[in-house]
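Open question from group meeting: does this chain pack into something compact, or does most of it stay loose? Before anyone orders reagents, we agreed to write out a predicted structure and look at it together. Recording both the input and the output here so the notebook holds the full record.
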Amino acid sequence: MAGGGDLKLLGVWTSPYVIRVRVALNLKSLPYEYVEENLGSKSALLLASNPVHKTVPVLLHGGRPVNESQVILQYIDEVYASNGPSVLPADPYECAAARFWAAYVDDKVGAAWQGMLFTCRTEEERAAAVARAVAALQTLEGALEECSKGKAFFGGDAIGFVDVVLGGYLGWFGAVDKMIGRRVIDPAKTPLLARWEERFRAAEAAKGVVPDDADKMLEFLPTLLALSAPKSK
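Structure tokens returned:
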């Protein structure tokens, strides 16, 4: 839920890293002020709050900045332990496993996402990036089966850390689906993940946060490509 209080989130609506933080805040039923950033003209608040990377998301808690999405997720879970469900498991081994798979998502799926949309120069390069994403998702199919123990989410009965991290990419997966004419999360290859995607998108915490309009995402893509293009000297 967006609103007042002592939490403020600086973000961009398409960013998978921002989306995951918004989902976590919603899971915890925490009111916060959301500030949409213009990455072509970054605010003084963003630059002051994240002077190292100058990127979103930035969570301001009582004016103090917390940076990097996975760090923010863990911060929210620790500081607001009594609010709503825990994002990370209480069991140390299960917590370590969740952190491992969340890191895998950003390392493998995130890198492939970057390749599909921002770094590929040819259709062959895009196809190779899609293949890397599909391979990573097939590995995550096995992780979902193991971590969920037959339940709805990586976190079991409720959305957990890995769910939130992977779920942040779903908006762009929908856009890529439209670009390439087939599903990245293919029900034939990863049926557990396909059903997981449906459940995640339908969750109250994800509604209005995870983009579901592929055309709108693709309309915004040229803006992001222009910002990521090398600047001439």
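Observations to bring back to the group:
The first strand starts at residue 7 and ends at 11.
The first helix runs from residue 16 to 27.
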